[in-house]
Amino acid sequence: ATGAITLTGALAPRLLAGPREQVAADRSASRPVDRRAAPHRAATPPAPAYPLDRPLYYVDDAFRSIALTIDDGPDPVYTPQVLQVLESYGVTATFSMIGLHVAAYPQLAQAVAEAGHQIANHTWNHVNLAGMPAHRVHSEIELASQVIHEAIGMQPGLFRAPYGAWSPAVIRQCERMRMVPLDWSVDPRDWAQPGTSSIIRTIMRTTQPGSIILEHDGGGNRSETVAALRVVLPRLLREGYHFVTP
Fold first, then answer.
1. Residue 20 reports pLDDT greater than 80
2. Where are the alpha helices (DSSP H) in 57-195?
């Protein structure tokens, strides 16, 4: 999207970071909020556990730790289904949320936070920030953080760039806002709806200690993702993996 962005309502552990061995060519291509309903949380996140000056591709791999990240929500159809699957297996995940979607479904953002999951900033409108001027980068990230704060009562401590498109301006904005730049190391390309078996196969073949897995609950039909999660979560747990949030 182009042009000015407006928003209605009241807004007033060890790092393994570096370039991926293989970068995918294709990457996943308002109501006012009642503050009284927001959970009681600190206004700012805790001190970052990872550096802010480069993208995070792996979490600390102690105890066979891995991280599950869910992007592009909240979605009224698929976010509740994903939450139900996560609850069934006692898994905590990180949801990278688009500001526009949080503004439309603040109660879903609240439900995610209240279930103990982490929420990351995924820009206001899921645009490719690479090459954008600094002021536009600032607007996309700042507005998303504001609306997430409106919904859950806490500023996000993580930022995920749409399409994994990082630039010096994006990293500088993360540093200013004290958000860890969150990337991923396992991409089953569920956004392209390759089939449930393909999603399962990619996750099980490529996950290793420290992996950050990318999945989606928004941006389209995510029934394959939900079905795949029902299979891979118990398998990964049986293999001794522990799910953490960055």
1. no
2. 78-89, 99-104, 106-114, 134-152, 168-177
Per-residue pLDDT, averaged over 42-50, amounts to: 67
pLDDT tier, 44 (very low <50, low <70, confident <90, very high otherwise): low
DSSP 8-state code for residue 18 = S
CB 5 within 8 A of CB 139: yes
Confidence of residue 49 (pLDDT cuts 50, 70, 90): confident
What residues are labeled active site? 71, 216
The 3-state DSSP class for residue 58 equals: strand
DSSP 3: S
In total, the chain counts a number of residues equal to: 246
Instruction: Map residue 12 onto helix, strand or coil.
Output: coil
Q: What distance in Å separates the CA atoms of residue 81 and residue 75, rounded to the nearest whole number?
A: 10
Long-range contacts, 17-21 (Cβ 8 Å, 24+): 17/50, 17/51, 17/54, 17/55, 17/56, 17/57, 17/58, 18/54, 18/57, 20/57, 20/183, 20/185
The architecture in CATH of the region 51-244 reads Alpha-Beta Barrel (3.20)
Could you tell me the residue ranges of all domains in the chain? 51-244
Cα gap 140→127, rounded to integer Å: 8
Cα(199)–Cα(191) distance, integer angstroms: 10
